[in-house]
UniProtKB/TrEMBL annotation, chains A, B:
Keyword flag Transcription regulation: yes
Record Pfam families: FCD, GntR
Domain HTH gntR-type residues, every copy: 17-84
Species name: Mesorhizobium alhagi CCNWXJ12-2
InterPro entries associated with the record: AsnC-type_HTH_dom (IPR000485), GntR_C (IPR011711), TF_FadR/GntR_C (IPR008920), Tscrpt_reg_HTH_GntR (IPR000524), WH-like_DNA-bd_sf (IPR036388), WH_DNA-bd_sf (IPR036390)
Keywords of this entry: DNA-binding, Transcription, Transcription regulation
Name of the protein: Transcriptional regulator
GO MF: DNA-binding transcription factor activity; sequence-specific DNA binding
Amino acid sequence: MSQVAEFPSTSEADKGQPRTVKALLIIRELILEGALPPGKRISELSVAERTGISRTPIRAALQRLEEEGLVETIPSGGFAVKSFSQQDVFDAIEIRGTLEGLAARLAAERGSMARLGPLNACLQELDEVVESAIATEEGFSRYVTANARLHALIVDMAESPTLERQIERAVSLPFASPSGFVMAQALMPESHRVLFVAQDQHRCVVEAIANREGARAEAIMQEHARLAGRNLRLALHHEKALERVPGGALIRKVR
Amino acid sequence: MSQVAEFPSTSEADKGQPRTVKALLIIRELILEGALPPGKRISELSVAERTGISRTPIRAALQRLEEEGLVETIPSGGFAVKSFSQQDVFDAIEIRGTLEGLAARLAAERGSMARLGPLNACLQELDEVVESAIATEEGFSRYVTANARLHALIVDMAESPTLERQIERAVSLPFASPSGFVMAQALMPESHRVLFVAQDQHRCVVEAIANREGARAEAIMQEHARLAGRNLRLALHHEKALERVPGGALIRKVR
DNA sequence: AGTATACAGGTTGCATGCAGCAGCGACGCT
DNA sequence: AGCGTCGCTGCTGCATGCAACCTGTATACT
């Protein structure tokens, strides 16, 4: 895990990025893949050596990661990898559901119906993935992409930059993201059917938005998020599955 | 506006603070009081000169302010003061209401009833302020303090650090805070009675929490936040009142 | 006259030096 | 032997130097 010269999969399109962004991506990746264990202090110098970037941008990246919630400051100075109780994760999911619910309601109340086109297209793509290719690894991958896009489209339709920012932040805890547990589901046959339920909710929420049924859209979206909570509960009993959850290593086994 | 040697009211207890925190407080104050007009680029060097702090901590403070949402990055580099449409402000208030509503529901569902003591004490203090001293300037000030404490106690009772963080962030836009418009109300007689309504909602939400009526607590808290929206609407017609809203200078007159 | 170009000033992004502090280990004292 | 104290090492927080970049202006050319 401690290759000295090379660093994780941030290979593509790193060249033009400013150093700070590069450092942010690298450190986030290191944390999520578990290379930096929770609770451990992150030495600026060691990261600087491993990445060839000087301490200044690394420091900046760590500050941003603290805002994201992945690291925390140590009273005596510096930063440490944060860890999360299971309750924390459930709460994060509930928060996302609440905010996405608000987005869905606003989309229903004030969204421009012109946006329904892309939404429906996205729905249809998800349908195809769920119906046909869901058994394959690549199918899950496609599902994750399309699922993320659908959620983004709904948030867009709310037309509230403030809300968008807030949701972005809520989702920056990766296991709270809409796609957080999908890849884990590939390993848990008993949760395959959850995808059908999820897709049904997708259809219902879009229908509710189209009908300007704000309260309904909100309620569905909240319940939709709770599916992730159920998957988390399942994954907590599957060691292998939890490994596939981004940032799963940060979840404390004992609460 | 450009006093060279001195800076705003950050006089008390600055000595022991690290430079970064000091810079953060100073810059935030400069923005909120309107010394740095919205849209204007914040020159690191000029702030450094005005504060006597070097560029490094100033830069760090600006990054944090960007996360808070008070400044934004300029594509060509550096930071600028952000401005907000009226819709942005309403949305920010709605988001706070949603999150505080979630907090109230969680407090009702899983909060420890031992926490009701301080809550009721706080309620009583608010009662006294509202009944007697509300006509005076100092009365409003006391109201702001106690109101902030009540809101904080409710959030505490939800016992969710994640949610607490998220609410902290939502409230970092100062005009979205529970106390954002209270000081403005002092200047708007027609909104005095709003305080009675607000206090009634305080009582009701605590009662709902005590009875473990989660849905009721959530709904009341959401509606409670919308009072701030009504005050905003009033304040937008009172030039003087808007001046008393922290960060009021950042709200664009035209949407 | 209008436009394009080149130059200059200022500003950021980054690297690095330095001082101060916290943590840790070893040594001496009781 | 146990405990307290001293010294050291490594680290962070901050200051500053430097190069690249963007912007704005003035000039020259069409």
